[in-house]
Design brief:
The structure is a single chain. This protein is an alpha+beta fold. The chain has 2 domains: about 1-170, no CATH class; about 175-280, Homeodomain-like (Arc Repressor Mutant, subunit A). The protein is built from 11 helices and 11 strands. The strands form 2 sheets. It has an 8-stranded mixed beta sheet. Strands 3-6-9 form a 3-stranded antiparallel beta sheet, with no helix packed on it. Helix 3 packs antiparallel against helix 4. The protein starts with a strand and ends in a 5-residue tail after the last helix. The relative contact order is 0.12.
Length: about 290
């Protein structure tokens, strides 16, 4: 397990080996206050459906609110917190959340397609939607929400969530494994810049890709490609090194710099240069 403390911030994250670093974070915690983020891998029997469990806790008492901002991934999250537990479909825009006071949130990040057997219908039906977890999942959601409200330990929450998942999940679905493989290819191969390139590298037809992504992911494959390339741009901006914008645009599959800037602004609300200035003004460090 990796554990680190970000300099000048009372921020600790604890991430299981192999669980991956956070990507697409646009706004990290401010210098004041206390934050903790944990990311835990599921046991082997749940791995066909679950990417990881996560928990965020914070203490901002006596301080102003903090607005968290991220570029979401192509995954459904089920999030448990006191009075506001939700099932969050894939968000195609920037995700924002205002944190204040002292509290904690526990979440389950499903693999692309992993929530499909629980929802029982195409994931495109909940894209850009947040649904009350109690209405969709019933008593187990209420029980987990109560555990979060009581300040239960991370281990207790993971144990309760795992028992619930084992009671409802069917046998592994080969289609989920295939979709997960396709999304992983896009994430891990920065040279996949178009759907045609994805077709060439995977051997899956464009029509099949469109159908599978609509049903099991909730967004088209082109969206996933663009989102992960924008994650790469955020990473380059966070590194603080000078960029050749024309070359960066080509590297990320854009016709020119203007198209890249417009796409970044439409999703994040900032131009790349505005985002850089924002990092400099807040002294944020993602390393």
């Amino acid at each position: 397990m990796e554990k680190r403390v970000i300099a000048r911030q009372a921020y600790v994250d604890e991430i299981d080996d192999g669980a991956g670093r956070p990507r697409g974070v646009l706004q990290w915690p401010p210098p004041r206050g206390r934050f903790r983020y944990a990311r835990r891998l599921p046991l082997t029997d749940l791995a066909p459906w679950i990417t990881h469990f996560w928990m965020v806790s914070w203490d901002l008492r006596g301080l102003g609110p903090y607005q968290q901002e991220t570029l979401p991934h192509p995954n459904v999250h089920v999030v448990f917190e006191e009075g506001a537990s939700q099932v969050n479909g894939v968000a195609t825009g920037r995700f924002t959340r205002v944190l204040s006071g002292k509290s904690q949130v526990f979440g389950i990040k499903f693999k692309p397609g992993g929530f499909r057997p629980i929802l029982g219908k195409p994931l495109s039906t909940i894209t850009n939607r947040s649904l009350p977890a109690r209405h969709l999942l019933g008593p187990p959601a209420e029980e987990l929400e109560t555990l979060v409200a009581q300040g239960s330990s991370e281990a207790a929450l993971i144990s309760a969530a795992s028992c619930w998942l084992r009671s409802i999940l069917p046998a592994p679905d080969p289609a989920i494994a295939e979709v997960d493989r396709l999304v992983a290819n896009i994430l891990e191969d920065p040279e996949i810049l178009t759907v045609d390139e994805l077709v060439n590298r995977t051997g899956v037809s464009k029509r099949s890709l469109q159908r599978m992504f609509r049903d099991y992911v909730g967004v088209p494959p082109k969206w996933v490609i663009r989102r992960y390339r924008l994650h790469e741009l955020v990473g380059r901006l966070d590194a603080g090194v000078p960029l050749n914008w024309s070359q960066v645009a080509l590297d990320l599959g854009y016709f020119d710099q203007a198209h890249l800037v417009n796409d970044f602004r439409s999703v994040t609300g900032y131009s790349p240069r505005q985002y850089q200035r924002r990092l400099q003004s807040t002294g944020s460090s993602h390393s």
